[in-house]
Amino acid sequence: MKNLGILLSGRGSNFVAIADSIAAGRIPDARIAVVISNRADAPGLEVARARGIQAVAIPSKGRPREEHDRAIAAALLDHQVDLVCLAGYMRLLSAWFVQQFPARILNIHPSLLPSFPGLEAQQQAFAYGVKVTGCTVHLVDEELDHGAIIVQKTVPVLDSDDEHTLGARILEQEHIAYTEAIKMVLEGNFEIAGRRVVRGQRSEVRLQK
Ligand code: GRF
Question: pTM of the predicted model, to two decimals?
Fold first, then answer.
């Protein structure tokens, strides 16, 4: 059984999608050991508690980044977390934190990286006028929205779209993509060659228990 730790700052729809996928058997042999938010008022914390999942607020406001990250890492280790999933976690992680969990932190981003990193990626893509956008689940490295790509899903931009309709269709794909990526990473059935994550190989970086 692998333990997931979810970090979030907001509503938590990706967290809910992951929890639903575990309950439905789409992510086998896994459980969500803890949900942690840097904001005490994140709706995702309440959703977690309502589902009987451990949920902890570790407020970041006014706290030096690495000191806060050390508190988060301690909570993850307390819950024996094997894989950290960022799910709308709106705070940059320190290099120190990333180094504590090598190839064991995933992030989801609402664009086809490397296009439109950073905030409001859906709006960036819409305003740029691209005809296709989507979402990316990637390993987290020390650069923002940058690590090796695990799964991408495309979403066409329709003439009838506005930022909100586009964002909603991207979000549907995010929920599918995150489940696929977590399943693949937990299975360890891939190889990382440079930046390329190639399926069907036994992973050098598979999770140790
Ligand atoms: C998602 O769009 C995700 O890609 C981005 O933040 C948003 C979080 O949404 N990183 P939710 O809290 O999971 O609903």
Answer: 0.94
